Amino acid sequence: MIAEEKSAYPTYEIMPELKTITSLTYSEQFLNHELETFQPKIQKRMLNAMKTLMADEMAYVLSVENLKRNKPPSE
Known about the structure:
Layout: E1 2-6, E2 9-12, H1 16-23, H2 28-35, H3 40-70
Antiparallel strand pairs: 1-2
C-alpha cells in the first residue's frame, strides 16, 4: 500500500525488520528515506540480502575478536 507520495517516487511503509536494521546505524533517517521509495517486494529482497550480509559480517567480527582474546598480552 502506498503511504504517501514525495518527490518523483511514490513512498511505501518500511518493513519493521528493515527499520530495526537502520536504527542500528548512524544514517537511520537517510536510509529510511531511501527505503520508503521501494515497493514491499523489493524491501523483502533487500531484507534477505541484509540478513546474509550481516551474518557474514558478524562472523568476521567474531573471528577478529577471538584472535584478540586469544592473543597473549604483550610485555
